[in-house]
Amino acid sequence: NLASKEPYYVRCIKPNDQKSPVLFDEERCRHQVAYLGLLENVRVRRAGFAYRQPYDRFLQRYKMTCEYTWPNHLMATDREATQTLLEQHGFQDDVAYGHTKVFIRTPRTLFCLEQERAQLIPIIVLLLQKAWRGALARRRCRYLRAAYAIMGYYKRHKVKAYLLELVRRFQGVRSMPDFGKSLAWPEPPAVLARFQENSQQLFRRWRARQIIKNIPPSDMAQIRAKVAAMGVLHGLRKDWGCQRGWARDYLSSASENPGLALPFARRVQALRDKVHFGAVLFSSHVRKINRFNKSRDRAILITDQHLYKMEPRKQYRVMRELPLSMVTGLSVTSCRAQLVVFHTQNHDDLAVCLHKTQPRGDERVGELVGVLLEHCRTTKRELQVQVSDRIQLSLRGRKRLLTVETQPDVAAPDFRKSRDGFVLYWPGSWGG
C-alpha cells in the first residue's frame, strides 16, 4: 500500500513563455525554481525529511490525539506542544524541529496520526453537538423563564385591575334601592372565571339576605312556597300567581266563601279534634271528574297530614280521605287552566279544576303546587311535578288521557268525555 512506499515528487519548469522547444530563458527558470521552493525542498530531502508543516497548523489538525494539547495546550510555545504530542505517540525519532515548522521523515508517521484523528472526529462531533444542543436548550429555557415571568407579572396586573374595578363598582351597593342588581360585573381574566362565579353566588345570597331581612316573619312561609313553585313552574307555565298574595285557606274566608265559611270552619275543627293535624295548607272549591265520566262540584282541603275531598252542599262532609304520604306527584298544564291532577300510589288519581274563585279565574295552581312542595321539603319527602298539556292519569287502575281546550262560549270550566279519556273546557274569557 501507499504507507510502504517512498514518495517521489515531480516539478515542471517552463523554459520559456513562447512555447518553443529550442529557447531556454535562464532568468525565467531561476524565478520558477525560487518560487516553488525547490532548493529548500532539495535540502530537506537530502536530510531525509519529506513532510513539513508549521507548528500551529500541525497542532490544529492533530491536537485531539494528545491529552496535553486538547482542547488547548498550556505550554509556552506551539513547538513544545508539538514535541509533547509526537513524544506521546513515540514518533520523536522520526521528526526534526525547525524554528517554525516540524519535519516528518516517513509517511507512516502521518498515516498513524491521520488514522487516530479519524477515530476521534466522530467523538468530537458528538461533543460539539451536545454542547450546541445544550446551549440551545439553555437559551430556550431562559426565553421560557422570561416569558413565564412576563406572563406572571401581566396576570397579576390583570387580577389586581379586576379586583380594583370590582371594589369600585360595588362599594356602594348597600345604599342602592336594588342592592346592586342593576350593576354589570366586569369581565374577569380567565384565571378568575371560577372566582367570579363564586362571587356572584355569594353576592346573590347577600342581596337575598338584605331583602329577606325586611320581610316580616309571618310572610316567610309564603315566600318559601313561592320559591318552591318558581323552581318547577317558571318558564313552563304562563302564569302561576307570583305577583299576588297567597291566602291558602280560601274556604275559611267570608269574602271568598260567603254563607259557607262557618260550616267549613266547623268541619275543619271537627277534623282537627279527630286526627290532630297541625295546619291547613290549602282549601278551595273544585270541579272534579270521576271514573264514571261524571263531573261534580266538590271542595278540597289539604292539611299537613291528609288530602280531603268534600261535599259543599252537605256541610262539607268528607267523601274521600287520602294521606299525603300516598300522593306521589302533581300534573298541571302550561296554560291558565286551573287543572291539577294528584297522582297516588294506589293508581287512583284525583283530577280537579279549581273554580268559584274571587276574582273569577284567579291563578291558584302555582299556590297549591308551591305549598305542597314546601311541605314535602320540610318533611324530607320528594314530590314530582309535571307540566304538560296532555296529562296521563289512572282511575282505579284504568289509564286515561286528560287534555284542555279553550272555548269562548263556555261560562264555567267543566269536564267532558273524549275518545281517549277526558277534556276540560276552559272559558276563553278567563284567559287561555
Automatic annotation (TrEMBL):
- For this protein, the parts annotated as crossing the membrane are none
State where the protein is found. Answer: Cell projection
What is one process in the GO biological process aspect for this record? actin filament-based movement
Q: Which PROSITE patterns match?
A: IQ, MYOSIN_MOTOR, TH1
Record's keyword annotation contains Protein transport = no
Q: Where is the Myosin motor domain?
A: 1-118
Q: Which UniProt keywords apply?
A: Actin-binding, ATP-binding, Calmodulin-binding, Cell projection, Motor protein, Myosin, Nucleotide-binding
Asked if the keyword Thylakoid belongs to this entry, the reply reads: no
Please report the stretch or stretches of sequence annotated as the TH1 domain: 235-428
Tell me a Gene Ontology molecular-function term this record carries.
microfilament motor activity
Q: Name one Pfam family in it.
A: Myosin_head
Q: Which GO terms describe its cellular component?
A: cytoplasm; microvillus; myosin complex; plasma membrane
Report the family membership: Belongs to the TRAFAC class myosin-kinesin ATPase superfamily. Myosin family.
Question: What is the protein's name according to its record?
Answer: Myosin IG
